[in-house]
Amino acid sequence: MNAFLLLLAGIVIFFIAYITYGAYLAKKWGINPDLKTPAHTLRDGKDYVPTDAKVLLGHHFSSIAGAGPITGPIIATMFGWLPVYLWIIVGCIFFGGVHDYGALLASIRHEGKSVGEVIRHNINQKAKIMFTIYAFITICLVVAAFLDITASTFAVDVNAASADVAAASGTASMIFIALALLFGFFVYRRGVNVTASTIIGVALLVGTIWVSDNFPFVALTKVQWQLILVAYIILASLMPVWILLQPRDYLSSFLLYAMVVGGVIGLIILRPTVDAPMFTSFTPAEGSFLFPILFITVACGAISGFHSLISSGTSSKQLNTEKDAKLVGYGAMLIEGVLAIVALLSVVAVAGNGEGTPATRFAFGVATFMASFGIPLSIGKTFVTLAFASFALTSLDSATRIGRYLIQELGEYTTADGRVKKTFLTNPYIATLVAVAVSVGFTLYGYTRIWPIFGSANQLLAGLSLLAVAAWIRRRHNRVSWENIIPLVFMFAVTLSALGLVAYSNFTKATFDGYVLAIVALFMALLAIIEIIITISWALNLSKQSSLDSDMVKNNK
């Protein structure tokens, strides 16, 4: 099979889906460009900031992408490339895209609040608390993971062959932060045109990569980077979104766009043949069953619960008009699908099943594609590694800010008479410190010990988010949202099965860590099951009430 044809087919299918299914969803959900978004009604210049659609797309895409759509599909090739390819296509269009788009719109209609608040408004307070606790645990795992990944990527080991690349990555990231601050200042405080600022910013970004590659001057250890990154995410959580988070993510997106375009052009020129197995086995390794492990492993390449936290955490507070929701919510997921396909093809068509981490194999594969049109292999590998690290950092700072939002929302409660009370947890400084402290605790304890359940927890969060959107549509539009219900039923089947496998396999290890993992897995599954029961009970009561109202109308007639 020709790799270029697989990529072309994927891009064409995604484009058709954006035009057709995206429009279908917009009509079904009642997108209204005339309604003012929270970015305008609650504008505060810090979290709620009306943003140009192109800038917001860059921020949103950088935040949801991270390392997930690269790492997941590459690991999942143990089942063969065809199941992975098909799930990326189907998952992005009918699962991930619906999930991200729905979470974004539901949040917009609830003052830019989180999915947890959507649940409170449409179901009840108890369901909101359980969802928010679940989401907070998941987001802290994300921060812990990317804190370790980013620090490891930037850390310089003089005995390692990749020391120069690590120093260059760290140097570029530090310069990049300064560049983002300048971009935000000139666009939002000096009124410089976004297009002109983008051209200058991208040119400076290219210069930053060249300077860092040739004159790396930041060479620190992993512990030193961890301390710097902790300070950075605290500041990123508290500073106005327009000055750092948004411009950094927006400019970062051009690294990813360039990386994807470079890979696409290389595929067009090389047209490599996919020699890797189309399908290997339903059980290629002990405990790795195609169902449910394939769908958990591909993760962000098709659907991710983390995306709903971005949609309802930062993006919904910056959306300028509802008509931009399709581009940001649905479009960004389809672009991520293209990235996932490029990652898949970079391994099965070039890097094969060789040694090295998924990031290393991906960098070699894409660099090989780019070498076909004159980019030296060494520079290509450095560029791709820099891009990979940059996106790990964007996920890290966005996740920390969302962790702050979740704690602040937990700090609010509604009394019996409908009044909203606030506790000390609503303070942004305290909320940030709580989120960072829990995340650092996971890192110090060794997040890798509980990482096996993260994939299941993340995908189960996606199912819960789909459930929240379906509940909102049922209550507000009085109809069953099959476009949400079918994906959520499938995701619950996948994730609860996967958590059951994790619990069983770890109980049989008969070790302390194994018991901890099993208990955590069962606890996460229990939270989700209780949430499902609460929602079903609410839906039945709502249907009963609707039936009673209908009977009353008939009797009055």
Counted beta strands: 2
Question: Major β-sheet, in short?
Answer: 2 strands, antiparallel
Q: Largest beta sheet: what is the strand line-up?
A: 1-2
Q: Could you give the distance between the termini?
A: 67 Å
Task: Briefly note the structural class of the backbone.
Answer: mainly alpha
User: How many whole angstroms does the radius of gyration measure?
Assistant: 23 Å
Report the sheet-strand fraction: under 5%
Order of helices and strands: HHHHHHHHHHHHHHHHEEHHHH
Mean pLDDT equals 87
Choose one word for the global shape: globular
Approximate helicity band: over 70%
Q: What is the number of helices? A: 20
Q: Would you kindly provide a brief summary of this structure?
A:
It is built from 20 helices and two strands.
What do you see in this structure?
By secondary structure, the chain is mostly helical. The protein has helices at residues 3-29, 38-41, 53-65, 68-76, 81-108, 115-122, 125-154, 163-188, 194-214, 222-238, 245-270, 290-298, 305-311, 325-351, 358-371, 377-410, 428-445, 454-477, 482-507, 512-556, and strands at residues 412-414, 420-422.
